[in-house]
Amino acid sequence: MLRPMLSCIALGAMSLAAAPLAAKDKSALPKELPPVFEAVVNCRALTSDSERLACYDRSVAALASARDKEDIVVADRATIRETKKGLFGFTLPKLKLFGGAERDADEVKEIESTISAVRETADGLGVFTLADGARWKQTDGGATFAKPGVAIRIKRGTLGSYLASIDKGAYLRVVRLSQ
After folding, report:
1. Which residues span the domain enclosing 165?
2. Residues 44 and 81 occupy one common structural domain
3. Contact 16/28 with Cβ under 8 angstroms?
4. 126 and 167 in one domain?
5. pTM, to two decimals
6. pLDDT in tens, 10-49
7. H helices of 43-111, where?
């Protein structure tokens, strides 16, 4: 489970480094791009068609090899957003892997899903498994009467908390559980 998550994080770093929109915020970009990526970009400077083509052939082959060995991963903004949705509820360090400071448009503030399983804990509170496999535990309130197949909406609360509304009902506090 950790390897796919790290791959997705690396995926986001490479994508944002190359994204045109990220170019507007120079402070969010890494100072140096991976050499295998730089080599492809540097081919543009060659004026001779044959030299430029040979350069592209060499550098693209090296880039493909790095991708095959999983030394470099490339993603688009939609993939990064889906990754962020999957990590919603976890506290991660600020490593600038998604392009630096969070952009309001890219930040995931809430998710909507369907409950796929419910179980009650010894303290009488519910644990909800969502359609994507994420597990959330109720931390306050009374019985929720949640059932599989029911819609759930989880949003950020204050001071790092999260609130869930089950089947458009009142909000209750929840916490994301590790898999």
Report:
1. 110-177
2. yes
3. yes
4. yes
5. 0.49
6. 444 444 444 444 444 444 445 577 888 888 888 899 899 9
7. 49-68, 77-87
